[in-house]
UniProtKB/TrEMBL annotation:
Keywords (A to Z) from UniProt: Disulfide bond, Glycoprotein, Hydrolase, Immunoglobulin domain, Inflammatory response, Membrane, Receptor, Repeat, Signal, Transmembrane, Transmembrane helix
Pfam families: TIR
Recorded topology in the membrane: Single-pass type I membrane protein
Membrane-spanning segments: 310-333
The name this protein goes by in its record: Interleukin-1 receptor type 1 isoform X2
GO biological process: inflammatory response; regulation of inflammatory response
Length: 537
């Protein structure tokens, strides 16, 4: 049986050698250069006849057929000549014979195997020349590697090498064949040539946008742009060319520009025959590129929003508007809103909070015995403040000079009663002498210590006169003004019974603690008058 097989092979080779002699030999000679100890494959030039035709390879005599045995180092596999690997003695002429039922074409090819030199990754004889236009951008290609693509059209990993400051580039891949791995090297000599000045491409339409598309529908996407000769345009989706995706086609139409024949308006049309759910995941990008730069725009697809989602979105928007409007109203009318809430809920506040405090506020005011502003501050502190906050609003105040007892230790009284108070009201006047008082008295120092360091008591600053410059004030007062602000008094000091409903007193009540039980205690006018009279003397 084996004898019959080898006899048949001999007959085929013999007939092939006879048929090779009948072919028309063309004079064109192709020189191919490869390195020794590397795998390489050659398929000759393009077909002359087209399928159906047969391809055969012959040795240097033009009659001896190349072996079809894949275990042979030099063999023919399918229509290509394989060197696995190449050796120096393989250099010489090879013949590519293509024949069909009526014609036969014979092509002479010279293959030269080069010996590698240590320390050099390229040889001038093996280089492929490639050209790039000067300027930004551009790329070179590792040539003749499409033979080594796998079934998914993917190439093996390409490693690039370049000798510094020279125009020589080398690419290297490792290819597995018949259970072994071989290197394949390509060398490139790069030349930079001048170019005409290019204009940046301009995309006219569409602008970046998102559009709603029904699932399963057909969609046309047009990209209109102005371009010059050799400008490159393409669509991408999910990082790859869109027209290579299933159910997507691409076409292009050019319209010449009568004013400038070098510029044309082109329309690139992408046709999605059937929109799929995966098309919603990534946008479709239109790219136009040349040496001057890149222009791009995108169209993102999304499914139509259902009615329920529209209602839900509308509800959230309405809620956001209501909340925003409410916050706006609260910011404008927060004083009135807080006071209204306190007055409305007054019946539910039966007693003071159990915080250990006795007084609602401690009054800190300038103390000196001069005429002018001191008398105004005394009227405000000893008459107006108690009349409104105590008699009308029910607050309990501690005023040093009114509520302390004769003979008590001043520092102990001040410290104890400040700690028993929920607020600290500081009364400021425009007199420079009051600035010194604020910074030097033990009362002010104790109050600032309790407010800023120990208890964190809340502060209310009141200006009886407009103070334009706080530069001479103590640092603690400047800090409190910056943090809490100041309330300016604009009332009449001579008014017999001030009203708690004015804007000034509403602001004071807003900063005061919530009054939970209306006070029935009213201080005797005689006590207030005696204090004022003692100040006047």
């Amino acid at each position: 049986m084996m004898t019959l097989f080898w006899f048949a092979c001999f007959i085929v080779l013999f007939i092939s050698s006879l048929e090779a002699d009948d072919c028309v030999e063309f004079e064109d000679e192709i020189v191919l250069v490869i390195f020794e100890d590397e795998l390489d494959v050659h398929h000759g030039s393009s077909r002359k006849f087209g399928p159906p035709s047969n391809i055969s390879w012959y040795g240097s005599d033009g009659k001896t057929a190349i072996s079809m045995d894949r275990n042979s180092r030099v063999h023919q596999h399918r229509e290509m000549l394989w060197f696995v690997p190449a050796a120096i003695e393989d250099s010489g002429y090879y013949y590519l014979v293509e024949r069909n039922s009526t014609h036969c074409h014979k092509q002479k090819i010279k293959i030269e195997i080069l010996k590698k030199h240590p320390g050099r990754c390229y040889d001038v004889l093996s280089e492929y020349e490639q050209k790039l236009l000067s300027g930004p951008g551009g790329f070179i290609v590792c040539p003749h590697l499409n033979i080594f693509e796998d079934k998914n059209n993917n190439l093996p990993k390409v490693q690039w090498y370049k000798k510094e400051d020279e125009g020589h580039y080398t690419c290297l891949i490792s290819y597995g064949y018949m259970g072994k791995h071989y290197n394949i090297t390509r060398s490139i000599h790069l030349r930079i040539i001048g170019r005409e000045k290019k204009k940046m491409p301009v995309i006219l339409t569409p602008e970046n946008r998102t559009m709603e598309v029904e699932l399963g529908s057909q969609l046309l996407l047009d990209c209109n742009f102005t371009a010059q000769k050799n400008d490159l345009q393409y669509w991408t989706w999910n990082g790859s060319f869109a027209h290579k995706e299933p159910n997507i086609t691409w076409s292009e139409l050019s319209v010449p520009n009568l004013n400038d024949m070098n510029i044309v308006t082109r329309v690139s049309r992408l046709v999605i025959l059937k929109v799929e759910s995966r098309h919603y995941l990534y946008p479709f990008l239109c790219w136009v590129t040349n040496e001057a730069g890149i222009a791009t725009t995108y169209i993102a697809l999304r499914p139509p929003v259902s009615d329920s989602r529209m209602y839900l979105i509308g509800g959230f928007i309405s809620l956001a508007l209501v909340v925003t409007f409410s916050m706006f109203l609260y910011k404008i009318f927060k004083v009135e809103i807080v006071l209204l809430y306190r007055d409305s809920c007054h019946p539910y506040f039966l007693k003071k909070a159990l915080d250990g405090k006795v007084y609602d506020a401690y009054i800190l005011y300038p103390k000196y015995f001069e005429e002018g502003s001191s008398y105004i501050s005394d009227i405000f502190v000893f008459k107006i403040l108690p009349e409104v906050l105590e008699n009308q609003c029910g607050y309990n105040l501690f005023i040093y000079g009114r509520d302390d007892l004769v003979g008590e230790d001043a520092i102990m009284v001040i410290n104890e009663n400040i700690r028993k108070s929920r607020r600290l009201i500081i009364v400021l006047t425009g007199e420079h002498s009051s600035y010194n008082w604020l910074g030097n008295t033990s009362e002010q120092q104790i109050a600032m210590y309790n407010a800023l360091v120990q208890d964190g008591i809340k502060i209310i600053l009141i200006e009886l006169e407009k103070i334009k410059n706080y530069g001479n004030m103590p640092e603690s007062i400047k800090y409190l003004k910056q943090k809490h602000g100041v309330i300016q008094w604009k009332g009449d000091f001579m008014e017999e019974v001030p009203s708690a409903k004015t804007k000034f007193w509403r602001c004071i009540r807003y900063h005061m603690p919530a009054q939970r039980q209306q006070s029935s205690f009213t201080r005797e006018p005689s006590v207030l008058d005696s204090v004022l009279n003692s100040k006047k003397k």
